[in-house]
Amino acid sequence: MGVDQTEPGMPADPVGRRVSCDGERATVRYVGPVPPTAGLWLGVEWDNSERGKHDGSHEGVHYFTCRNPKGGSFVRPAKVSFGVDFLTALQQVYQIRALQQVYIRSRSSSGPQGLRRSPHFVSSHRAICLAAAAHTIGLKTPYFSLAAAQVSVLAADFESRTSVLFDFCEVNGPGAEGEIRKTTPRVAWLGLSGTLLSCWEDMAAIAQQLDQLDSLQLSDNRLRLPSDPSAHCQAFCNLKVLALNRCDLTWPQILECAPMWPQLEDLCVEDNNITELQRPVGVLQSLKSLNVSCNPVEQRSVLSLAALPRLEQLKLMKIGLSDIRFDDAAPGSQTALFPALKNLNLDDNNISEWRVVDELAKLPCLVQFSCSGNRLVSSDGNPKTVTQILIAKLGQLVLLNRNILRPEDRRGAELDYIKMFGEEWLKAGGASQLSTQFASQHPRYQSLIDKYGAPEEGELKKQEPFALKNQLLKIYFVFPDDAGRKPIEKKLPASMVVQKVKGLLYRLLKVPAADLKLTYTCNKKVGTEFEIDSDLKTLQFYSIEDGDQVLVRWS
Questions:
Q1: Which of 33, 57, 82, 302 has the least C-beta neighbours within 10 A?
Q2: DSSP label of 301
Q3: CB-based burial of residue 502 (10 Å sphere; 0-12 exposed, 13-18 middle, 19+ buried)?
């Protein structure tokens, strides 16, 4: 229902519309009075819930609903912006850039104080500052005449433009019908992140006028789902690349929208609300690249993506993954799942079992793999040995952790792997009658023997622990919740279990071990905090190295 417009600039149907207020984005959920105050109020739900004050209630009256109990506020209409249409935004952005160029020329002509940096490399935010500065100092008339001429040239140039960037501009819709097609008909790459678009229908109305659109950046938006997604497939019929990062979407919502993108090849949905993946049925079948990183994904649901017939690249960074299994294939065999997958990124997960790597070796086309920031360790505690084992276990790799593998790298890793586990191989029966257990733990070992020959007994590497002096780690215990407590430095054996570490801390702090919560940070991943979640695992298991910090908290 429409609202009596008593405020200038407010649309007739503001509920559900996106607004900007003090640099933050929000969605209007209510329009009307909020007694006992006088006048009109907008009830908004903030994208950033920390910006809000309540759940849509005031003095016991519930005016609107927020998903977050502190995600709502009431604001006056004069405080918010409902944005502008596509072409108005286009004119504003490029007029600012034109004025920016004029200002730079005026400064350059005034002497050594002139700016030397090309205007093409200055951001639109910088351009706004320059425009404001130009207004403040008062450019002379000839320069303003030049600016007007430049704006005219830029307007004429819109017709040949192939890319338009409106990230975090207040675009709210297409504007007059057909005008985008007349003004920017050749645009193929469009950036509309963090805009004031409210629904997919408005986005489709823009895309419908861009026949060559193949790449679309829509991150940091909150688009209302379409009532009939199939009705918009023509608008996005040429779309190949789509980014929907930080849009608060679930996987079912993405699948609901997917009929709009019949030719999509590259989909990025990082940092959304994706918890469980379902199999795409009849949609996303042309997808070649998918990025689901930084989502709390249920790991068993990852296999729901396995039937995508053309998927070549899959990014699953920071999803908490610790296990994956392809039960359709025996160790050393190839799985029928992920038939086209060439590039897999599992950085910053919780993988600690080598069995997971053996499962990945079943992928028939895997040639690029990244798994830095996980918990894989070797018996000698050396990260370089971990790399050698990865190369040996994954026989088709050409790129590991973004490093190209040369033939000599592979040969050296595989020969070392043979020597490393040669003694176990002999004890397990060797070439005569190899045990099933050894074969399942080392699926490639026999093929490497066939390739290089069996190891001589003198070549075998004994799996012996380091001498104690080499196992001692210098660890700094810090107390983030107790600012007055100084860090404690200790030298501890890498083989020490977490339970004993907590016993040591109990003696130092007089805090029961059961109340202690431990995490650690390392110099290699500054800013990342890793959980220590098992009292029975060793410091070496968690890849804690000399000089690392263990963060100690207690309840």
A1: 33
A2: G
A3: buried
**Neighbouring residues of 455: CB distance < 8 A, sequence distance ≥ 6:** 418, 419, 422, 425
pLDDT for position 526: 75
Output the pLDDT for position 111. 45
Tokens representing residue 52 in the block: 């809000």
Q: What is the pLDDT of residues 177-187, one digit of tens each?
A: 999 999 999 99
Q: Of 217, 209, 218, which is closest to residue 237 (Cα–Cα)?
A: 209
Nearest-angstrom CA–CA distance, 494 and 539: 5
What residues contact 367, with CB distance under 8 A and at least 6 apart?
Answer: 342, 343, 396, 397, 398, 399
| Domain boundary pick from 61, 79, 97 | 79
Query: Is residue 227 in a domain?
Result: no
Residues of the chain whose pLDDT is less than 50? 1-3, 5, 111-149, 151, 153, 463-469
Asked if residue 409 and residue 432 are part of one domain, the reply reads yes
The pLDDT, as a whole number, for residue 122 is: 35
pLDDT single digits (tens) 7-22: 667 888 899 999 999 9
3-state helix, strand, coil in the chain (%, to 5): 30, 15, 50
Same domain, 459 and 338: yes
Map residue 404 onto helix, strand or coil: strand
* Dihedral class, residue 271 (left if φ above 0, else alpha if ψ from -120 to 50, else beta): left
Cα(240)–Cα(213) distance, rounded to whole angstroms?
9
> Is the distance from CB of 476 to CB of 548 less than 8 angstroms?
yes
Helices (H), 286-406: 354-360, 383-393
Residue 266 backbone phi and psi in degrees, to 5: -135, 115
8-state DSSP, 427:
H
CA 320 to each of CA 293, 316, 376, 544: distance values in angstroms, whole numbers, following the listed order: 10, 9, 14, 19
Class of residue 546 by CB neighbours under 10 A (exposed 0-12, middle 13-18, buried 19+)? exposed
Q: 218: how many CB neighbours lie within 10 A of its CB?
A: 20
Q: Which of 183, 131, 129 is nearest to 156 (CA)?
A: 183
How far apart are alpha carbons 160 and 165 in whole angstroms? 15
H-type helices in 174-246, by residue range?
Answer: 179-183, 200-207
Distances (CA, A) of 349 to 293, 370, 387, 521: 10, 11, 17, 15
Same-domain check for residues 361 and 452: yes
Q: What is the pLDDT of residue 494?
A: 85
Domain that holds residue 508: 468-554
